[in-house]
Amino acid sequence: MVRNRQRDDGALIGLSDALSTSGLTKLLLHAWERRYDLLPAERTDTGRRFYTPEQVERLRLLKSCSDGGHRIGSLVPLSIDELSRVEEELKARQSLTEILAAVQALDSDRLHALLQARADAEDPERFVRATAVPLMREIGTLWESGQVTVAAEHMATAKIKRILGRLFDRCPPAASNALRLVATTPEREEHDVGALVVTLLARLKGWNALFLGASLPADEIADAAHRRGARCVCLSALAGRRSSFARHLRELRAELAPGIDIWVGGPAYEAITSTEGVTYLPDLDAFLKALDIAQPDVSATV
């Protein structure tokens, strides 16, 4: 029986090896083919299926990420690079057991040592993606279920912010003509880790990014943005009254010059009706893509 075959642009992998490598069953693979058009690279007259190595890796990632709790329908449109990042975040979440135990035990020294070890071993973006963001999400989930106290959540947040603050020292200095942004949270939103994270990521991407801290009124944010010559304002919020956040956005939009964009992220902004001049970014990938789209304007910035 022919398991694999060769063609001009490389080797093809037969169904048996594709199933073995991806971890899929034949029944599930065929179901995905029908529902999501995940067809093989080649199918012979006798019905044999053959896949490229890239297709097999994609199938493996889809299986891994769906097993981790993501809906297959939301995964299918993603590229291999995007799926790889999702898988990395899932693995990171699974590896947070020891850190979460230190949080629940209010073991400040142990928590700091564990976080610092990861920060030293990983580049800043990976630390954000694989440790800081998954950890804060997990702590939030545990807090909602009563498995983490408010004191433990506050301690963990302080430690994360301390580590993130030190990572700014590893960012290269921004060019004199770099695009500028400011990041903060709206009034009465004290959870500012999200704003700190996007500031750090923007700095790593070459932006001249300034973190303003938490809970600022619209006029103060607008004043800071104008003084800094910002290209955009980034806002992050976890929870709160929808009407308050919507009003804050309207006030900020009215205060800001038309050429300054507003980018918002976090669960609190998901349900807010779209406002002209305001872009909702659902995750870090969307934020990084927005940075890249705006980046060509750097050469024209004074």
Overall description:
The protein is of the alpha/beta class. The protein folds into 3 domains: 5-76, Multidrug-efflux Transporter Regulator, Chain: A, Domain 2, CATH 1.10.1660; 95-168, Methyltransferase, Methionine Synthase (B12-binding Domains), Chain A, domain 1; 173-300, 3-Layer(aba) Sandwich (Rossmann fold), CATH 3.40.50.280. The chain has helices spanning 15-22, 26-36, 53-67, 72-75, 80-94, 97-104, 108-121, 124-144, 150-167, 193-204, 218-228, 242-255, 284-294, and strands spanning 5-7, 10-14, 42-43, 49-51, 180-184, 208-211, 232-236, 261-265, 278-280. A hairpin with a 2-residue loop joins strand 1 and strand 2. Helix 5 (80-94) packs across helix 8, helix 7 runs parallel beside helix 9 (150-167) and helix 11 packs parallel to helix 12 (242-255). It is globular. It starts with a strand and ends in an 8-residue tail after the last helix. The relative contact order is 0.07.
Shape-level CATH architecture of the largest domain? 3-Layer(aba) Sandwich
Separation of the first and last Cα atoms: 66 Å
Structural class: alpha/beta
Number of helices: 13
How much helicity do the residues have? 40-55%
Q: What's the CATH C level of the largest domain? A: Alpha Beta
Topology as a string of helices (H) and strands (E): EEHHEEHHHHHHHEHEHEHEEH
Average of pLDDT: 90
> What's the alpha carbon Rg, rounded to whole Å?
23 Å
What is the CATH topology descriptor of the largest domain? Rossmann fold
Low-confidence stretches: 297-302
> CATH superfamily membership of the largest domain, which one?
Cobalamin-binding domain
